[in-house]
Specification:
The complex is a heterotrimer of chains A (about 160), B (about 290) and C (about 750). Chain A has about 160 residues and is an alpha+beta fold. Chain A has two domains: about 80 residues, Beta-grasp domain (Ubiquitin-like (UB roll)), CATH 3.10.20; about 70 residues, DNA polymerase, domain 1, CATH 1.10.150.120. In chain A, about 35% of the residues lie in helices and about 15% in strands. Chain A is built from five helices and five strands; from the N terminus they run E-E-H-E-E-E-H-H-H-H. Chain A has a five-stranded mixed sheet, sandwiched between helices. In chain A, a hairpin with a 2-residue loop joins strand 1 and strand 2. With about 290 residues, chain B is an alpha+beta fold. Chain B folds into three domains: about 45 residues, Uridine Diphospho-n-acetylenolpyruvylglucosamine Reductase, domain 2 (2-Layer Sandwich); about 110 residues, Uridine Diphospho-n-acetylenolpyruvylglucosamine Reductase, domain 3; about 110 residues, CO dehydrogenase flavoprotein, C-terminal domain (Enolase-like, domain 1, 2-Layer Sandwich), CATH 3.30.390. Chain B has twelve helices and 14 strands. In chain B, the strands form four sheets. In chain B, strands 4-5-10-6-7 form a five-stranded antiparallel sheet. Chain B has a four-stranded antiparallel sheet with strand order 11-12-13-14, sandwiched between helices. The longest helix of chain B is centred in the C-terminal third of the chain and has 25 residues. By secondary structure, chain C is α+β, with helices and mostly antiparallel strands. Chain C has three domains: about 150 residues, 2-Layer Sandwich (Aldehyde Oxidoreductase, domain 4), CATH 3.30.365.10; about 180 residues, Alpha-Beta Complex (Aldehyde Oxidoreductase, domain 3), CATH 3.90.1170; about 325 residues, Aldehyde Oxidoreductase, domain 4 (2-Layer Sandwich), CATH 3.30.365.10. Helix content of chain C is about 25%, strand content about 25%. In chain C, the strands form seven sheets. An eight-stranded mixed sheet of chain C has the order 3-5-1-13-10-11-12-21, sandwiched between helices. In chain C, strands 7, 8, 9, 14, 15, 16 and 26 form a seven-stranded mixed sheet that branches. In chain C, strands 17-27-28-31 form a four-stranded mixed sheet, with helices on both faces. In chain C, a hairpin with a 2-residue loop joins strand 22 and strand 23. Chain C starts with 17 loop residues before the first helix and ends with a helix. The chains are: A alpha+beta (about 160), B alpha+beta (about 290), C alpha+beta (about 750). Chains in contact: A-B, A-C, B-C. Chains A and B meet through strand 4 and helix 3 of A and helix 2 and helix 6 of B.
């Protein structure tokens, strides 16, 4: 099949990839760009492990066509922090014991980041956090420590006015 | 599963593309349902015509009505201040479409045009007597949502027509709305039953207006005129009867999500409950 | 931290692999790839029971990009399996369930492979099928395996026709006891098919090297078992198979056995290229290792003062078309059914049944939730009938220390009374008031800490770090962090000084696998043994250096100390490396099997439980009387963990296990109709979301085991056992509706409350 050049801005960098028109953003991230931090599972927007930020908002990259992302800004887990400079969410997830197998964690952290950014510094309640995360499934943790981690990160980010 | 992906710059260009490719083309807004249907091989369009970037993504209002552009996302609706103030049912319905990630992409127009009997926003829009605007090669037309929706997955839209907006009159100050949904878990659900209600208060018994819409209980979302008339005439005393009338009007199916019998029971319960909640909201607002 | 916490073990420390996971750098098998890799897809049966009359791959083979297509005729005719060798890699002439693998394709892209699968032409001749396990075991049922008697199987299993395993546990005289019982209760319960629900699909990359050796990177919980199984399937000596686990996104017992590794291996062998195969969500719900649906019939006799005097029961597990772990699972069901209760007279029977549905496996606590749902529901029914408090009825009958278990073994480390009492207190059991739509329920259980051996190599490096080479996979529980905490404790270093390697069967010592709640326990024990030997080596070197005897030396603060003499471990390691090859040791551990009375059990592979744990759950629910919707208002778990190696990750196991149990209790089910799955997707296979899972109050009891490291007991499986029964009991208290068949859906409650619709 023919491939078409597509410019995608990912984690602040411009990438030119040759993609087939029906490819999802997830396929491009994992298959073409080797960014395997974004995970694949149901491929039907039911589990959320493929979540990335599109112009700052959490979206399922498995059902977004790569071409729908032309000219928009994408952030994956690789763009959120690194081992030496963890984002407050990443640090909180570790501290609260919210990470078990870890497969849902990149999607979960980005889902949480999108939500906390929408909160604009306000510390959300537990029911609000649960509702915001309900599109990303975790099978290991029962969500409790994930919710605690998001709340902790929210408090810290509020203190730092991030 | 190959297709061409077109990103036209104007609505006219989009319509022209649709006319050129006919049944081989589909419009795509968010694509959250369309892409999945293509993946599952239930649909095989050869051309996708993107409706993004055509200026259909705004919520506007005049003194008389609200208008939601077709590519407004569900999350846009959830966070719209005017809706949060005056039309909470709209936000309640938009807030339970899929998960948050889906709501950041999926659109109001898509929810309508898909015409799933379980579409969450449709009962609310139907209860608001919404109208849809369409643009096609034959020009512009508007029709009530109630006439636009035909059956499961079918609307009155022609292949070359783009749904551009859905509009509804601003509700009177003394009115309240409510949306309720039942599913097998508390999030990420395709409705087993969903119900929207809208009441406009008046002095004395009854209500100036009562509107009830039921989703996922028939092959399309429907209003319940006899229940509405009963509630308008007799007020709260008719709430339970309204539930029963709505259940009688329903023709639910048995499927892996629920039995028809349970769906009918839910219609009865949720209609009554939605009406009560509207009544409570009216009281809270001092009406 | 643990009430028995030490310097490292017992503390809430950060897991050792957390940073990689939160930054997206941790590589899972699903992420793994090799240059030049092909992609494999499998053609799966659309018939539940049929003969394949035509299978034509010509068009598929001709598709550009296709490098290899395999059908049964391309492979040696052999059958593999755990209890029974009843399964072929690709269906040979006949299919036994919808979703069974018939052909495998490798191509240069996944899309081409999928397209090729669609081009394979196939015609079936339908054969009589059986979908109901009770029908399957009745006389005259069509045989799911016509030649079942030709299959090799483990001799412990008693097989006949559509029953790949029958077993029993009996003692005393139940009939006499029933004859003199005050009351007798007979009930039937059933549970449904549920999927482990891991978020990472099963994945494997297989590659053959120039020597004809196979390397497989896979997300398996049992790399050594996988190695042996692949060797058997590929007709190779085991020495030519190497299994590496890069990372695994959840297993829960669903990634124990061969899933896609054999497809990848065969496609790689025939194509000469590395091949990657992954499952889709649909394939997971058609052909994976879900929990067996179960039917339990339980007859219990009680004395006037509420003692359980006799129990007769029959458990049928529906294995699906291939036995896999059905036969051992139904055997374990018997111990769960006996419960943590004294049983004077017992006659329990277990039957594994074949049906023409997808195969099943060992999802977390196999048999646990199913049998517990029956026994703990019934005891509440009994309590209600006798007018005795359900808590009190349990307390009257539970084990005391040293009691006889169902197989005559001595049950030790018993803490069930404490667990029940604490759970009841925490939920406010005494404050129960009858209230429409609100109710409390309790359920208790016991479970084993699976045996099997674990080996580790431990080396102390000249830079002061400690390398732990274990054959056990970290599946997410934090078990390897726990084992490392134990090792750090023993060697007087910090947890952050320990590096744990990925599992590679070529270099790691054997481990029985990350299953059965055994990992932290067993690897921890092996670490203690290895550490003891390292201490001996360290003291010998220090003794030589200082010219003293090694007695009275201790390890302290990353060094060896004697009086005011001190040498760092790094220094000792360096010395050792220069002169003697380095500080390295090997540790192994295995639990002794408790003695039991063999006359009480027939055909039971695991009659006596090692290092049992005890636990009680208590919950308060509210039920919407009109819609039947159930909300879990409070959930309490009291679990005896022996020694809480790392309370944070133990809580994680409890919170996660309860969520899975709630899924089984309320919303999950793989629904079959006439042999077809109606909901093979995550839209309609409904696992709990963040809005469905309640907060769980975890209360850890530390009643030390004899055999566990620092007294630890197995932790991972138990939390998913009791939720169905606890919730069923709470719902019954809230509504008067007693559900005997899982899941307890809002529909069942609403229709029960409202009878016929008007």
């Amino acid at each position: 099949m023919t491939r078409i050049a597509l410019d995608l801005t990912i984690n602040g960098e411009l990438h030119q990839v040759m993609v087939e028109l029906h490819w999802s953003l997830l396929q491009v991230l994992r298959g073409e760009l080797g960014l395997v931090g974004t995970k694949e599972n149901c491929l039907e927007a039911e589990c959320g492990v493929c979540t990335v930020l599109l112009d700052g908002k959490a979206v399922n990259s498995c059902i977004l066509l790569a071409h729908q992302c032309r000219g928009r800004s994408i952030v994956t887990i690789e763009g959120l922090g690194d081992p030496e400079h963890l984002h407050p969410l990443q640090a909180a997830f570790i501290e609260c014991g919210a990470v078990q197998c870890g497969y849902c964690i990149p999607g979960m952290i980005l889902t949480a980041k999108s939500f906390l950014d929408e909160c604009r510094g306000r510390v959300p309640t537990e029911p609000e956090i649960r509702e915001a995360l309900s599109g990303t499934l975790c099978r290991c943790t029962g969500y409790q420590k994930i919710v605690d981690a998001v709340a902790l990160a929210a408090r810290r980010m509020e203190e730092r006015h991030e | 599963m190959g297709f061409e992906f077109h990103a036209p710059a104007t609505i006219d260009a989009a319509i022209a593309l649709a006319q050129t490719h006919g049944a081989a083309a589909r419009f795509i807004a968010g694509g959250t349902d369309l892409v999945i249907q293509i993946r599952r091989r239930r649909l095989a369009p050869q051309h996708l015509i993107s409706l993004s970037g055509l200026g259909l993504d705004t919520i506007t209002e005049t003194s008389a009505e609200h208008a939601i552009g077709a590519t407004v996302t569900h999350n846009d609706v959830v966070f719209h201040p005017a809706f949060q103030r005056e039309l909470i049912a709209l936000t309640e319905a938009s807030a339970v479409v899929g998960g948050r990630q889906v709501r950041n992409i999926a659109t109001v127009g898509g929810n309508i045009v898909n015409a799933s009997p379980a579409a969450d926003l449709v009962p609310v829009l139907l209860a608001l007597d919404a109208e849809v605007d369409l643009v096609g090669t034959n020009g512009v037309r508007s029709l009530p949502l109630d006439r636009f929706l035909l059956d499961r997955g079918r609307t009155d839209r022609r292949d070359d027509e783009v749904l551009t907006r859905v509009r509804f009159a601003k509700p009177p100050a003394a009115s309240a709305s409510c949306f309720l949904k039942a599913g097998r878990r508390k999030a990420m659900e395709i409705s087993v039953i969903c119900v929207a209600a809208h009441l406009t208060g008046k002095a004395g018994a009854g209500f100036a207006e009562a509107r009830i819409a039921v989703g996922a209980a028939a092959s399309r979302t429907f209003r319940v005129p006899d229940a509405e008339a009963a509630v308008a005439a007799r007020g709260e005393a008719a709430f339970a009867e309204a539930g029963r009338l709505a259940a009688r009007a329903a023709s639910p199916i048995d499927d892996v999500r629920a039995s028809a019998r349970y769906r009918r029971l839910l219609v009865t319960t949720l209609v009554e409950r939605a009406l009560r909640r509207c009544r409570d909201r009216l009281k809270q607002a001092g009406r | 931290m643990s009430s028995l916490a030490r310097r490292v073990a017992g503390r809430r420390l950060n897991r050792i692999d957390g940073v990689g996971k939160v930054t997206g750098r941790h590589v899972y098998a699903a992420d793994f790839s090799l240059p030049g890799m092909l992609f494999g897809k499998v053609l799966r049966s659309t018939e539940a029971r049929a003969r394949i009359v035509r299978l034509d791959v010509a068009k598929a083979r001709a598709l550009p990009g296709v490098r290899c297509i395999l059908t049964a005729s391309d492979l040696p005719a052999l059958r593999f399996g755990t209890a029974v060798k009843d399964r072929a890699v690709l269906a040979d002439g006949e299919v036994r369930f919808v979703g069974e693998a018939i052909a495998a394709v490798a191509a240069t892209s996944l899309e081409i492979a999928e397209q090729a699968v669609r081009l394979i032409e196939i015609e079936y001749e339908t054969l009589p099928a059986v979908f109901d396990p009770e029908q399957a075991i009745a006389r005259g049922a069509p045989l799911v395996h016509e030649h079942w008697d030709r299959y090799a199987a483990l001799p412990v299993f008693d097989r006949l026709g559509n029953m790949p395993g029958r077993c029993s546990m009996t003692h005393g005289d139940v009939e006499a006891a029933f004859a003199s019982a005050y009351r007798i209760y007979e009930h039937r319960f059933s549970t449904q098919l549920v999927h482990p629900g891991y978020t990472e699909p099963r994945a494997a990359v297989a590659s053959w090297d120039g020597n004809g050796d196979l390397v497989v990177w896979a997300n398996t919980q049992l790399p050594f078992d996988m190695k042996n199984m692949l060797a058997e399937i590929l007709d190779l000596p085991a020495r030519k198979v190497r299994v590496i686990v890069p990372g695994i996104g959840g297993g829960f017992g669903g990634k124990l056995r061969v899933g896609v590794e054999h497809f990848a291996a065969w496609l790689a062998r025939k194509s000469g290229r590395p091949v990657k195969v992954m499952t889709t969500s649909e394939e997971e719900l058609l052909d994976a290792y879900p929990r067996q649906p179960t039917i339990v019939e339980l007859k219990t006799g009680v004395s006037r003062d509420g003692r359980l005097v006799a129990r007769k029961g029959r458990v049928i597990v529906d294995c699906g078309a291939y036995a896999n772990s059905g036969p051992p699972t139904v055997a374990i069901a018997l111990q769960v059914l006996a419960g943590p209760y004294r049983s004077a007279n017992l006659a329990l029977e277990g039957i594994a049944a074949y049906t023409n549905k997808g195969s099943t496996g060992s999802f977390r606590a196999p048999a646990g939730p199913m049998a517990n749902f029956a026994v703990e529901s019934q005891i509440d029914i009994i309590a209600d009938d006798l007018g005795i408090d359900p808590l009190e009825l349990r307390l009257r009958n539970v084990f005391r220390e040293g009691d006889e278990g169902p197989a005559g073994e001595k049950v030790v480390g018993v803490s069930i009374e404490e667990c029940l009492t604490k759970a009841a207190d925490a939920i406010g059991w005494k404050d129960r008031k009858p209230s429409q739509g609100r109710g409390k329920g309790i359920a208790c259980s016991w479970w084993l800490t699976t045996g099997g051996s674990s080996g580790v190599y431990v080396k102390i490096n000249p830079e002061g770090t400690v390398s732990l080479v274990s054959g056990a996979v970290e599946i997410g529980t934090g078990a390897l962090t726990g084992a490392a905490q134990i090792l750090a404790e023993e060697l007087a270093v910090d947890l952050t000084d320990i590096d744990v390697t990925d599992v590679d069967t070529e270099v790691a010592p054997f481990d029985h696998g990350a299953q059965g709640s055994r990992t932290a326990f067993s690897v921890g024990n092996a670490c203690r043994i290895a550490a003891a030997d390292l201490r001996r080596q360290i003291f010998a070197i220090a003794a030589q250096q200082w010219g003293v005897a090694p007695e009275d030396m201790v390890l302290q603060d990353k060094g060896v100390v004697l009086g005011n003499k001190r040498m760092s471990l790094a220094e000792v390691a360096s010395l050792s490396q220069r002169s003697g090859g380095g500080l390295i040791s090997h540790g192994t551990a295995i639990q002794p099997m408790p003695a039991h009375d063999p006359s009480r059990v027939k055909n039971h592979p695991l009659p006596a439980w090692t290092s049992p744990s005890f636990h009680a759950h208590a919950t308060e629910v509210s039920v919407d009387q009109a819609t039947g919707e159930i909300t879990i208002e409070r959930y309490v778990v009291v679990q005896d963990v022996g020694f809480a190696i790392n309370p944070t990750y133990i809580e994680g196991q409890i919170e996660g296990g309860v969520a899975q149990g709630i899924g089984q209790a309320l919303s999950e089910e793989i629904v079959y109709a006439e042999g077809r799955v109606l909901n093979a997707n995550l839209t309609d296979y409904k696992m709990p979301t963040a809005m469905d899972a309640p907060r769980v109050d975890c209360i850890l009891v530390e009643h030390p085991s004899i055999n566990g490291p620092y007294g630890a007991k197995g932790v991972g499986e138990p939390p998913c056992i009791q939720p169905p029964a606890a919730i069923a009991n709470a719902v019954a208290a809230a509504t008067g509706v007693r559900v005997h068949a899982l899941p307890i859906t809002a529909e069942k409650i609403a229709l029960a409350l409202h009878g016929e619709e008007k």
